[in-house]
Amino acid sequence: MIFQKLRGNMKIVLYVVLAAFVISLLYVGGVRLFDSGGRSNAVAKVAGKAITIEEFNKSFNQNLAFYQQYQGSVPRSVYNQLRYETLQQLINQQLLLQQVKKERIKVPKADVDAELETIKSGFPTEEDYRAQLRINNMTEKQLREMINDNLAVNALLETKSAYEVTEEDVVRAYEQVEASHILIEPVGDERNFELARTLAEKVLAEIKGGKDFAEAAKTYSADPGSKDKGGELGYFTRDMMVKEFSDAAFALQVGEISEPVKSDYGYHIIKVTGKKEAAGEDFENQKDTLRTTLQQQKSDQQLQTWFEEIRSKAKIEIYDPVMRAIDFMAAGLYPQAVSQYEEAVEANPYDPYIRLELGQLYQALEDPDRALAEYKAAADLNSSDPEIYLMLGLAYMDREMNVEAAEQFRKASKLDMTNFQLHLSLLQLYTQMGLTEDAANEEDILNQIQKVWEAQQKAAQAQAEAQAELQKKLDEQNLAPSGN
Known about the structure:
Triger factor/SurA peptide-binding fold; Chitinase A, domain 3; four-stranded antiparallel beta sheet; 65% helix; disordered N terminus
């Protein structure tokens, strides 16, 4: 997710620094989620290059401001995920900057000058621009360095994403096959593929002996999406199916049936019922659009492949156990993530959100007892966050302890009387649990929130109309004859 936004993020990092509507939010009561506490000033190291606590906190507050601007308030329970995304963003940027240096990419001074003038032109006056620099505790020299880095990285990414779409690429993207299939899954917990192949060959023999393909699919196929339709998949392009299936299907002629084709899903018997060839007026009309789409797709794929290789070879050290835990979770390494969260709990025993995340991890590991214990610990540490009680209630529901669940939901409801999404969730939960009185109470709260919102909208509309009317009168006065 983060990598796909890299090219935009490098420019965002530059422009956010001086964007007045964001800067006003960043450093008033900014959140510091790392503190050195006498330890090293580094949050992480990328190939020996430190990402400092100050650098991290500044970037985190910028990202937080973006979230707040576009999504409203950000729940405290998602801060660690946002911290992780911020850290990954900084790691990726550092990797790119190191690659720029390695490949000796130089940016002409004229390009930096032009970009700086573009930034300056976004401010009403030179003094406004200088004031914004002072707010950010930044000199123009530092800004020029940021511009240089940004342009150098963009040049690097343009080089690494360069791809020339061939005529074959366009043809392959246009071609489609219509097919039906029968999927025979591997048998048992041990996923016995040999037995699946034997059964697939038996089914194929029945079809060759005269059994209707659609009837065979309805009888034998393990694919729930196509089984009841006689195995019909409709038309698809090469990239829509796993490679083994796609290669086999596109190699068949209309009416042909394949031998059993192995994929990770099992064995497929494929029947091709139609083909869309890359020829004719429709193909000619779509060629240019396909070429443009492919150019973007292939460039992005090439860039991503290159960057993943760069990152896989880099020595990346993360010093915060919560960030390491999230990293392990992203890789599906849950036991290792548990170990890191336990280390984080030991280091930060009064942080309820570490316990909350550890509870979610235990849920993913299907350990409801430990999950419930962590949610309880989180609630004991913070009795003012409704989301903690909501999650604690859901944990009780998972264990069919609805009385205890309802008690936690009621606590959550009382803690925030303006959160529409919270009360909508509670309404759905109470309805599911058959608690009609509680559900009715949530409906009343939702109605009150809706009324307040509508009143605010009307007030805002009335204010806008009054301002428009005032402006109209001022304009009329300015246009009226002076009388001289």
